[in-house]
Design goal:
With about 325 residues, the protein is mainly α. It has a single domain, classed as ABC transporter involved in vitamin B12 uptake, BtuC. About 75% of the residues lie in helices and about 0% in strands. Helix 1 runs parallel beside helix 14, helix 9 runs antiparallel to helix 14 and helix 13 runs parallel beside helix 15. The protein is globular, with a radius of gyration of 21 Å. The two termini are about 25 Å apart.
Length: about 325
């Protein structure tokens, strides 16, 4: 069964992506209409007024959102990497402070640069990397080989930047800036632009593919430092490389959608329960499952209610009961 996991998930991802193209409040985009639109574009025929609306809806709204949801959902495969490195299935991408740092960076962009989207995205990415860098510096300064020290550094970094984010909320204008900052921290694809997806998507895809190919190394590192050293793996360098490559997609995901919680914790845990702990299968399976889950969740977020709720609210509401059921089903392994 496990050998069919990746092909099945690939087919599901493609099918979900196609279905999401025709899901939304703009009901004039149907498979037949899409075929006519593509045919008109290929043959360089003039577009009708309805086709122009369809082209705008597809090119500037629906397609960038779908691509962003796929990238963010797949990027949270970093949670699987962290869980393998720390040998703990309850570890999430925010364990080293990346989400807390990104929140503070977004606060700087919104409060100090008057809601500038570009400044918000740049500072969110920079401070996400700074937060993880602080955790790594803390562990190197004390004792690099200890995972416990690295976790402690991540907790300190997350607490520091969470406090700084609270300070930015205090400084924010309650009428204009504070609502935008709060909405950003909830996670949303409402402000996704095709240009942002393009320049962020290329490094994200590269890093995600690289992580998915690190299954063998992650398997060895999950055995413990002594076992890894005996098999010729430079533990410190290998761990630093995977942590760096897992942090950057998480930081880029915040640039695209803000803080989208729970996926990096719940999806890897559920996929591990289904396919086992082998990271050679678990890493790519988690990436595809995360992309599928976020595609469906974002579709719900933009269609259920008249006013679009942040997608981070839905991921939390959906993930919590699923996670609880998974833990209950797999409760024997915790004893």
């Amino acid at each position: 069964m496990k050998k069919y996991t990746l092909p099945v998930l690939s087919v599901l991802l493609i099918a979900t992506t196609v279905c999401m193209l025709f899901t939304g409040r703009f009901n004039e985009l149907t498979p037949a209409a899409l075929y006519d639109l593509i045919r008109s574009l290929v043959l360089d025929c003039p577009l009708s007024p309805l086709q122009e609306k369809q082209f705008i809806a597809l090119s500037y709204i629906r397609l960038p959102r779908i691509l962003a949801a796929i990238l963010v959902g797949a990027a949270l495969v970093s949670g699987t990497c962290y869980q393998s490195l720390f040998m703990n299935p309850l570890v999430s991408p925010g364990i080293l402070g990346v989400l807390a740092g990104a929140s503070f960076g977004a606060g700087i962009g919104i409060v100090l640069f008057d809601n500038s989207l570009i400044a918000t995205q740049i500072f969110a990415f920079l401070f996400a990397c700074c937060a993880v860098g602080f955790a790594l510096f803390f562990s190197i300064f004390l004792r690099w080989r200890s995972l416990l020290i690295l976790l402690l550094g991540g907790m300190i970094s997350a607490s520091l930047f969470t406090s700084l984010t609270a300070f930015m909320k205090f400084l924010a204008n309650p009428n204009t800036q504070l609502p935008d900052l709060t909405y950003w921290l909830m996670g949303s694809f409402a402000k996704v632009e095709s240009e942002t997806v393009l320049w962020v998507g290329i490094p994200m895809i590269t890093l995600i593919l690289y992580l998915c190919l690190q299954g063998k190394t992650a398997n060895i590192l999950s055995m413990g430092d002594d076992e890894a050293l005996s098999m010729g793996i430079p533990v410190g360098w290998a761990r630093l490389k995977i942590i760096t490559c897992a942090t950057l997609p998480s930081a880029f995901s915040v640039v695209l959608a803000g803080i989208v919680g729970w996926i990096g914790l719940v999806i890897p845990h559920i996929v591990r329960f289904l396919v086992g702990p082998d990271n050679r299968v678990l890493l790519p399976a988690s990436a595809m499952a995360g992309a599928i889950f976020l595609l469906v969740t974002d579709s719900i977020a933009r269609t259920v209610f008249t006013a679009e709720l942040p997608v981070g609210v839905y991921t939390s509401l959906v993930s919590l009961p699923i996670f609880a059921i998974t833990l209950y089903t797999n409760r024997r392994s915790w004893r």
